[in-house]
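Lab manual, section 2.4: Encoding a predicted structure.

Procedure: take the sequence of the chain (128 residues), apply the prediction step described in section 2.3, and record the output as C-alpha cells. A sample record is shown.
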Amino acid sequence: MSTTSTSTISSLPRVWIGHWLMVVAALHTLFALVFLHQPLLDIVRRGVYNTVGQDPLTAAAVWFLLFAAPLAMQALAITSLERSGQNAALRRQAWGLLALSLLGVILMPESGFWLAIPAGIFLLRRGR
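Recorded output:
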C-alpha cells in the first residue's frame, strides 16, 4: 500500500462508516415514504394483515421500508465496533456487507446497493 493511500485512510475520522450506513438506511425509509406512499397507504387501508399479495409495487414498498431496519441495526453495530477498535469484527462485517451489496448490484444495478460498497471497502481497510 502506498504512503499516500495510508495517510488518506488515517486522516479519515475514526468513526464514520456506521454513520454513513445509517444515512443510507434513513434514505431508504425516506424514499419509501415519498415515492411509494400510495402502496403503503393501501396496506393500511386494507387492514395490514396479508395485504401485499402479488402486487410488485406494494412488495417493493414493503421491501424498502423493512430493509432499512436491519441496515440501521448493522450501522449501529458497526459504529460500536469502530469506537471500540474491534478490527477483526469490522472485517467480518465488511465481507458480509460487500457480499450482500455486490449481489444486490448484480441483481439490480439501478439500486442503492452501490451506496454500501464504499463502506464495505473502508471497513476492510480499517479491519487490517
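Check your result against the sample. DSSP finds six helices and no strands in the chain.
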